[in-house]
Write a sequence for this structure.
């Protein structure tokens, strides 16, 4: 008797997608949650098995359980927060399981969905007990999505996950440490969180122009004012005139050039 060939990953993906459609058409929110509970239990039981087929089924079962839980949350009035949290956890488990079998694309998608569920929960909690915990879970999910998208060379998606992660960090800091949040916001505006050369260059030019205008109103001629401002933007003092404005520009220039160096280093070593 010939051995039945193992299903391909694409075939398994299609099979579980059809199962999701079937369950959504035939089940109430309670039925969806019962199915999700069974799937999670099955996935937990398969998790320790070493054969590749079992590992694929583990990942797909966690993902399907997450999809059903998220669907049930959406069908309930005002989206049940506990269900969004559970869906976020299940998507995260699916991301781990897909990553273990080196299906990085599916892993990245699962982590991204995990972050999305936690973000939806966070927006609805808005300051309540688990608010910061939801921030941290969403940040963690987007960070892992960024890593696995980078591993498959999808730098566009990796960049999108990075900006979502950094935006959430900034919002979390605004709740916990306003001063650090302000500095983090300045870093984001001026350099795109260390990613955007364009933003950094615009910030550099605006700094030269701003201090040039200050020197111009201080009595310098047009050419001298902008020449002095440009020199000091490169940490070179081109005139004996000093004072608080000179110190302020040097401080800004150190900060701005440091941002530029950060961008160069990030581009060299990758995310």
């Amino acid at each position: 008797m010939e051995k039945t060939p193992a299903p391909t990953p694409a075939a398994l993906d299609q099979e579980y997608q059809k199962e999701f459609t079937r369950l959504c058409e035939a089940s109430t929110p309670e039925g969806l949650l019962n199915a999700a509970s069974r799937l999670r239990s099955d996935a937990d039981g398969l998790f320790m098995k070493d054969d590749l087929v079992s590992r694929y089924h583990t990942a797909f079962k966690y993902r399907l359980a997450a999809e059903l839980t998220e669907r049930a949350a959406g069908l309930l009035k005002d989206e049940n927060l506990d269900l969004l949290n559970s869906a976020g956890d299940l998507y995260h488990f699916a991301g781990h399981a897909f990553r273990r079998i080196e299906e990085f694309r599916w892993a990245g998608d699962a982590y991204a969905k995990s972050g999305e569920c936690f973000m939806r929960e966070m927006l609805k909690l808005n300051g309540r007990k688990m608010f910061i915990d939801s921030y941290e879970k969403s940040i963690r999910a987007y960070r892992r999505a960024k890593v696995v998208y980078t591993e498959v060379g999808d730098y566009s998606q990796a960049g999108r996950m990075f900006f979502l992660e950094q935006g959430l960090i900034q919002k979390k800091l605004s709740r916990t440490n306003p001063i650090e949040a302000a500095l983090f916001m300045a870093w984001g505006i001026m350099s795109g969180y260390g990613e955007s050369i364009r933003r950094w260059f615009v910030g550099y030019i605006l700094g030269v122009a701003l201090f040039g205008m200050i020197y111009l109103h201080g009595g310098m001629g047009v050419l001298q004012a902008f020449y002095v401002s440009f020199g000091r933007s490169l940490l070179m003092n081109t005139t004996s005139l000093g004072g608080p404005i000179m110190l302020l520009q040097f401080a800004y220039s150190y900060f701005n050039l440091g941002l530029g160096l950060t961008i160069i280093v990030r581009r060299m070593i990758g995310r």
Summary: The first helix runs from residue 9 to 26. The radius of gyration is 26 Å. The mean pLDDT is 83. DSSP finds eleven helices and no strands in the chain.
